[in-house]
Amino acid sequence: MSSTIRRKVMKHLEIVKQLQPSLHQETHAPSPDQVDNEHYRAYTRMAHDVGGEPDVPITWEEKEEEVWEHNTFVTCEVLAWRGVWNAEERRRRQNVDVGQTAYLGLPYYGRWLLTAARILVDKQYITVTELSDKIDEVRKRYE
Question: Contact at 8 Å (CB) between 56 and 1?
């Protein structure tokens, strides 16, 4: 990758990091004359939307699916079959709504789990307390 492209990618990531920090920082919406091209691109692009964008080379590795990953997939499919969500809602929530920090920081099926938990709570199928109690119960089984 050329150093010019790398600088552009790094500048973009630096701007996005300011707009979508891991810990929310209170900011004021800029007036239109304060939004330059780089900021407009950072506001409108999501971390998963990289089609046609310059990026570093990725090494392709064949990976066996772990049991928890398979169970996550099945659970999410069952939630869809039961009408809790549809595929478009799940994809939007796990790829766009999580923000860049979670998108880049969680494993693929980790985002699925986070999305399932959020939707179940948001749509009031479970409460945060019930979810927390269940997490504690499962954690104790594996200690």
Answer: yes
In terms of C-beta distances under 8 Å and separation of at least 24 residues, what long-range contacts does 99-103 make, across chains too?
99/20, 99/47, 100/16, 100/17, 100/20, 100/46, 100/47, 101/20, 101/21, 101/22, 103/46, 103/47, 103/48
- Residue in 40, 43, 108, 125 annotated catalytic: 108
- In the chain, what is the straight-line distance between the N-terminal and C-terminal CA atoms, in Å? 46
pTM score > 0.70 for this model? no
Instruction: Note whether 117 and 131 are within 8 A (CB).
Output: yes
Rounded distance between C-alpha atoms, residue 63 and residue 26, angstroms = 40
pLDDT digits (tens, 9 = 90+) for 51-89: 666 667 778 888 889 999 999 999 999 999 999 998 888
Sign of the CA dihedral running 46, 50, 56, 59: positive
Q: What is the pLDDT of residues 15-39, one digit of tens each?
A: 777 666 555 555 666 777 777 877 7
108 catalytic? Reply is yes
